[in-house]
């Protein structure tokens, strides 16, 4: 392939990525707590420990088969999201310590209300700590979104843990990435908590 053809292909890919949109994140939550609306049996200890990947954990211990309350994370401090929301990705850095357990529910929080499609699974939580991903760049969790819903301090996510036996588990970190298509003519940036990564203008 000629160098001119390779250059054209690279330019085409870059332009396609710009047209498709931008993303902000991953962003860390700022407010954490137990939400008892799901009538669980067990509470998360030290929920705010899920704010960073630092091997300091929020933990759940279930003395019998049962469901935890929701661990609720909000206040993700999104700021550059605009235009059309294309998808939302949530990642939990988590592990199972003893016993057997899996997701109860994984739901988003919009306008302060827990709602949308449950993306939780019955796959047992890993015994080795790792990030587990929910959603995608095209997954809206069954909800209609405005940019203001994402930048609001009451946007976030909840997760509950379902134990099949007496069990314990822990979460080190919760983070969210939002994918969006900015309005035409708007200069947009790709952000994470570490700062700006890229900047484009969509004509």
CATH level 3 topology? Jelly Rolls
User: What is the averaged pLDDT score?
Assistant: 88
Are there runs of 5+ residues with pLDDT below 50, and where? none
Number of domains: 1
Q: What is the 3D form?
A: globular
Quickly count the helices.
2
Could you list some keywords that capture this structure?
11% helix; 2 helices; globular; 203 residues; single chain; six-stranded antiparallel β-sheet; five-stranded antiparallel β-sheet; Jelly Rolls; mainly beta; 13 strands
What can be said about this structure in brief?
With 203 residues, the chain is mainly β. It has 2 helices and 13 strands; from the N terminus they run αβββββββββαββββ. Strands 2, 4, 5, 7, 8 and 10 form a 6-stranded antiparallel β-sheet that branches.
Q: Could you walk me through the main structural features you see in this protein, from its secondary elements to its overall organization?
A:
The chain is 11% helix and 46% strand. By secondary structure, the chain is mainly beta. The protein has one domain: Jelly Rolls, CATH 2.60.120. Strands 2, 4, 5, 7, 8 and 10 form a six-stranded antiparallel β-sheet that branches. A hairpin with a 2-residue loop joins β7 and β8. It is globular, with a radius of gyration of 19 Å. The two termini are 30 Å apart.
List the topology elements.
Blueprint: H1 3-20, E1 22-28, E2 31-35, E3 58-62, E4 66-67, E5 70-74, E6 84-98, E7 101-110, E8 113-115, E9 130-135, H2 147-151, E10 156-163, E11 167-181, E12 187-192, E13 195-201
Antiparallel strand pairs: 1-11, 2-5, 3-11, 4-10, 5-10, 6-9, 6-11, 7-8, 7-10, 12-13
């Amino acid at each position: 392939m000629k160098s001119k053809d390779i250059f054209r292909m690279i330019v085409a890919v870059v332009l396609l990525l710009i047209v498709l949109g931008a993303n902000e994140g991953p962003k860390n939550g700022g407010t954490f707590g137990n939400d008892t609306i799901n009538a669980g049996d067990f509470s998360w200890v030290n929920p705010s420990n899920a704010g960073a990947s630092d091997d300091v954990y929020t933990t759940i211990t279930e003395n019998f088969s049962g469901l935890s309350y929701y661990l609720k994370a909000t206040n993700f401090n999104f700021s550059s999201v605009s235009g059309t929301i294309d998808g939302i990705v949530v990642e939990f850095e988590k592990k199972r310590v003893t016993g057997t357990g899996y997701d109860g529910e994984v739901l988003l929080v919009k306008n302060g209300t827990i709602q949308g499609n449950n993306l939780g699974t019955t796959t047992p939580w890993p015994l080795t700590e790792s990030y587990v991903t929910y959603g995608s760049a095209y997954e809206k969790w069954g909800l209609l979104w405005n940019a203001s819903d994402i930048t609001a301090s009451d946007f976030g996510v909840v997760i509950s843990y379902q134990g099949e036996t007496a069990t314990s588990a822990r979460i080190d970190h919760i983070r969210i990435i939002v994918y969006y298509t900015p309005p035409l003519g708007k200069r947009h940036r790709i952000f994470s908590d570490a700062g700006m990564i890229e900047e484009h203008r969509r004509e």
